[in-house]
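Narrative of activities, Objective 1.

The group set out to show that a structural description can be obtained from nothing but a protein's sequence at a throughput compatible with the screening campaign. Below is one input-output pair from the validation batch, recorded exactly as produced.
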Amino acid sequence: MIACEGYATKHVAVVGLGKSGLAAARALCRSGARVLAWDDGEAARAQAEAEGIPVRDPARIRWAAMDALVLSPGIPHTYPKPHEAARLAKHAGVPIIGDAELLATSGASAQMIAITGTNGKSTTTALVGHILENAGRDVEVGGNLGPAICDMAMMEVGSAYVLELSSYQLELCPSARFKVGVLLNITPDHLDRHGGMGGYVRAKKNIFRGQGSGDISVVGIDDETSRAIFDELKAKNDRKIIPISCAGNAPGGVYVDGATLIDDLQNKAVKVMDVAKLAHLPGRHNAQNIAAAYATARMMNVPVADIVKGIESFPGLAHRQERLGALNGVAFVNDSKATNGEAAAKALACYDNIYWIAGGLAKDGGLAGLENLMSVVRGAFLIGDAAEVFADFLADKVKVEMCGDLETATKTAFAAAQDDNLEDATVLLSPACASFDQFRSFEHRGDAFRTIFERLSTDGAVSA
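Output recorded for this entry:
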């Protein structure tokens, strides 16, 4: 658990007692802070009280006496409407921070690597951590992925924190200085929380805010918004800027040309490896993740041979194009993490003869932009709140089945794949939607899909 010694004896409110908020409250209490915690859910408040963490309604807190409000990432402090605690804290001039700020001010001596982007940040974070760990480095991986930041150990010189940071977290860590900051890509997402695209972009750019001489910015240049940020940083000339691309040449950076990873960091365009052979990192989007992870590891002075070994041995992440196995020759792929159309597009581009399970709570944009990928879709099996809207969009493009729930969709898709008897058939769960209409989280949805596959496998021959 990190130390928060800078907050010893200070008065700190912690609002939102999920994984990250409860970890922050514990760390602050252990460090001697005077904590008042709150969650809108009764069960979360009860858990905090059972651990001896004082709980108080924000309306009853004397905000003039508070030194900080630690806000969990899921709680709005601006748009679409600030939580009452955030409103009261702002009125009283109390700084609003997040758990990444607690780490930044903890006194830990380890270097911090931070990774963000609309898509791919979880895989890239895990891949960087895997490469460093397999190269013998002392590493803690977490943040928006895995352990909460405040549950991480205090790390010393020579070690590294590898953090996945969301746009929400990046708004609330003003003191953070990241040795390596990685921005993969930016496409519209979470716009309601940021007041539009401009606010979302500003939040993502915060990953570079504290950097200066000696720090490294790794920036994807495959989308217009990120490329503009790259050009802006390059013009400042106050740090090392490394471009990455999965779509061709990135002079002075790391890129994938066709299926070949190219290291041009020394302007020599050295061929490193064939990324097409990496079964656990399929598709063009993972080529970008590989380029980013490679660049980051090189900047952490990991030998090229060790980086290649790390990439090749990376097992992939659950719920992110996770191959569950094959049943009667039909592959099952769990891509439950694809909670928007952009993410689903990346999966649809990776397979032939897809029996696609989609639906849930639709996000802005829906399935727009996926039209050109429908040639490989043999049927769409729709679930959840978005089913009717998706059916209207897909009606003249692919065969549509209204399935309602995930189990029905999976069984129906599998039956259709067996009837068609095509080579390389894949039942793909890539919902292009949030999960909260029928599941607690995308992890819950993916776990349910895995369970359905396992039940189906008891009646058929499974191959890896």
